[in-house]
Amino acid sequence: MAGLTLERIAVGALKDIHLDVAPGEIVCLSGPSGSGKSRLLRAVSDLEPHGGTARLGGVEQGAVAGHRWRRSVMMVPAESAWWFDSVGEHLHKPMPEALEALGFSDETASWSVSRLSSGEKQRLALVRTLSREPRALLLDEPTANLDETTTRRLEDWLLPLIRKRRLPVLWVAHGGEQIRRLAGRHFRIEGARLVEEPVRT
Fold it and tell me: Where does the chain cross the membrane (predicted)?
């Protein structure tokens, strides 16, 4: 698998962002509300105009059509969109093991999206994304609506998958404990730049 490289990314207040994320590495991002965490992920996924570029292995973001780039470098926003009536219609392929690991039943694929809670949508948005076999993940506070037990359950499912598929991951997180559990490296947004913080103290 390929690593993810950010080269001179500029979006909003952020300027000249350089970052290399190795295959299978989780890099956590944190910072105050409004500092640009989500906008940075949107720039990397080519969902927002920006300066600079991103690379996945030897492929440059601007060298392929946006929809093709986003199939490889997939972003899971904090509030996911749903466009079909049922959960199963959103899955690229059946994901029974993932559903079970996250506490869902076999019938979940037939559930109406309208019955889902915010926490269920967050978990199922991750299942939906992984069903499409991306080559890199951009996660915007994917456990924000989950309690501690459910958060740990999601991490226990997702981290081995990241390692197995060797996915480079940018993960926006606020909680210090979660960052210590997940991150290979941690960067905090301060003004226009990323400042590396110690992961474990």
Answer: none
